[in-house]
Amino acid sequence: MTVVVLAVAIALVAVIIAVVAVVVALRKNQTKTAPHTPTTPKDPFAPEGDTTGDPRTLKAGDMLDWGVERTWIRGSLRLSQGGFTWTEHFFETDEGKAWLSVEEDPTLELAVWDARPDVELTPHAKTLEFEGVTYQLDEKGSGSYRSEGTTGLKAAGGMDYADYESSDGRLLSFERFDHGPWEVSVGRKVLPGSFTIYPGS
To answer: CA 126, CA 178: separation in Å to the nearest integer?
Structure first.
């Protein structure tokens, strides 16, 4: 009787060991075959997921909420020079006509420009004095534009530009379209998230 009990106990232990071995083997096999999805590094400052909206998608009809003022994009210029592209969006404020420029070079750069039609100045030198501020030439060139909405320009054409910057970050810009007169604007850089975008219909 004792021999029979011992034999049954040994058989039972053998079955348990076999079951454990099968379970362990299956788990190892699942670990080997389970697809491993590596975590993709992300830019913590990228505008994706920003609740204020993506300035790169702005278009005529979109609303900008600056916190103290709301305004609408009335028109946009899609500008290009070689393989480089940027946009300028026209809106109006209590002070007059203004533009929001959006470019990636390579990070997202935004600036608000106030038109100065009262100024007769040309980009004739590498250094310019304007209203007591010294500006240095940053870049200049020629390119093409496409117009959307209300911009005061035809649907497409050519343009020239010259951008200046002061030592304290103030901006001075010259643009002329279709060989017309130079248009002067003064600008300031703004950070993404300085305004909220509400897409138009």
So the answer is: 23
For residues 103 and 85, what is the distance between their CA atoms, to the nearest angstrom? Answer: 7
CA distances from 109 to 43, 49, 104 (A): 15, 18, 6
The pTM of this model reads 0.73
Which residues neighbour 1 within 8 Å (Cβ) at sequence distance 6 or greater?
A: none
pLDDT in tens, 135-156: 999 999 999 999 999 999 999 9
For the segment 36-54, what is each residue's pLDDT rounded down to a tens digit? 566 666 555 555 555 688 9
Give the residue from 159, 196, 2 showing the smallest Cα distance to 78. 159
Nearest Cα residue to 161 out of 140, 135, 130, 181: 140
